[in-house]
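Hey, can you fold this one?
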Amino acid sequence: MGTPAADRDEQIRRIEPASVDGITCSLTLHCLPPAATVDAFAEAGFMVDRVVEPQPSPEALSRFPDELGEFVGIPGFIVYRLRPIAN
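Sure. Predicted structure:
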């Protein structure tokens, strides 16, 4: 796992190496606490309608078991479905 670096507004920036099929790169992840994320949506005029934490598919796990196996059950990212707040 990469090294966290403190940022403003409680944001954490983490840089992690990634490698698939012989291609290596660095991923920069920007993480906010869920409450800060939802507050930002509300300030922009949206409410959260649904939250999804996708998991690797069985096909992806069979193709990349070493790379993805450790992530089963751990949210790698969160998808929010938003709706405008009615005034």
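Helices lie at 34-43, 58-63, 65-68. Let me know if you want another pass with a different chain boundary.
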